[in-house]
Amino acid sequence: MSNALRVAQGTFGRVALLDMDRPLVRHAHPHCHVLLKVEGADTKFWVRDDLVPLTSESAVLVNAWESHAYAHDPRRPPTIILALYIEPRWLAEFRPNWTASGRPGFFAEAVGTITPRIRALADTMARTMVSEPEAQHLHEILLSDLMIAVIERFTPWRDSAVSLRDLGRGLSVDRRIRAVAARIDEDPGAVGHIDDLITATTVSRAQFYRLFEASFGVSPRVYLNAARLERAVRAVSDSDASLSVIGESLGFSVPSHFSRFFHDHAGSSPSVFRAVTRCTRDLETPR
User: Fold this and answer.
1) Which residues contact 213 (CB under 8 A, 6 or more apart)?
2) Residues 6 or more apart in contact with residue 172 via CB below 8 angstroms
3) CA 197 to CA 251: how far, in whole Å?
4) Pfam families given for it (predicted)?
5) For residue range 216-240, what is the model confidence (pLDDT) as tens digits?
6) Which residues share a beta bridge with 212?
7) Which residues, in sequence order, are bridge partners of residue 86?
């Protein structure tokens, strides 16, 4: 079963070292998302409608709110993947126009050939997460070097800084759709059905879906699931609430449904994810 080997979290977002032997459902993240193979079989991801390879020589590059899915082949051995979920505000500390990493089009292509430096940095990051899980400051230094190398390799930030700044100013979102997104972000567990959101906007169902996807690039259901996942990750990592209580707060009346949702979106069971993050936190706490 796929599970997290290590998870590092901070102002940068999070980095997960995942041992993957099963597919993930189509989903999205509000992050700049980079996937690098560390060990095991070559594999593939769906990014929007393209099936792209993840190998020792290539990275999969997913823009914020870009739908994607892991397409594991059950006939092949597992793959250890370094999955980076990076906050645009953290990247903006390096270059102001890197705030555009939170918008569509930051990565022009969904896959690219990595440099020997990116390969070495990814391997070092993965090894350090395993051997020194408590070294949060070192993790952030290594991640800084890795993300700078990735962005310099795969985005035209030097040549098109003005267009990236324009992109970073955001998209024009219909006020009704903005209100719906704010409602989801505030309490994703309180959203029972998408139809309830549609009713509140006074627009037709077809228009609602059209406006929502034009604004965020994903369907309302994918957006809602992303909000649920981010809330779940924080609760599983930081709170002492039982997994059943966390699941219920997010709208899952059956604990197994919450566990399946978490595993299908995060690549790990919530219990293992909690154990890994708790282990790291305990190591960081002075005795």
Assistant:
1) 219
2) none
3) 15
4) AraC_binding, HTH_18
5) 889 999 999 999 999 999 999 999 9
6) none
7) 13, 32
Terminal CA-CA length for the chain: 34
- Angle between helix 136-154 and helix 116-131 axes, rounded to 10 deg: 160
The single-letter code of the amino acid at 226 is A
The helix (H) or strand (E) run that includes residue 213 is helix 205-216
Angle between helices 220-238 and 175-186 (to 10 degrees): 30
| Residue 45 tokens, joined | 């991801």
Distance CA 224, CA 118 (A): 33
Q: How far apart are CA 104 and CA 170, in angstroms?
A: 10
Domains of the chain: 3-168 (2.60.120.10), 175-284 (1.10.10.60)
Locus of tokens 């699941």: 247
Helical packing angle, 205-216 and 175-186, nearest 10°: 80
Give CA–CA dist 142/17, Å, rounded.
14
Question: What tokens were used for 71?
Answer: 């397409």
* pLDDT tens figures, 99-117: 889 888 899 999 999 999 9
Closest CA to 122 of 145, 102, 106: 145
Give the Å distances, CA to CA, from 8 to 19, 33, 84, 172, 224: 15, 15, 10, 34, 24
Residue pointed to by tokens 């999955």: 83
| CA 79 to centroid of chain Cα atoms | 18
Task: Give the amino acid at 137.
Answer: H
Instruction: Estimate the share of the chain in helix, then strand, then coil, as percent rounded to the nearest 5.
Output: 50, 20, 30
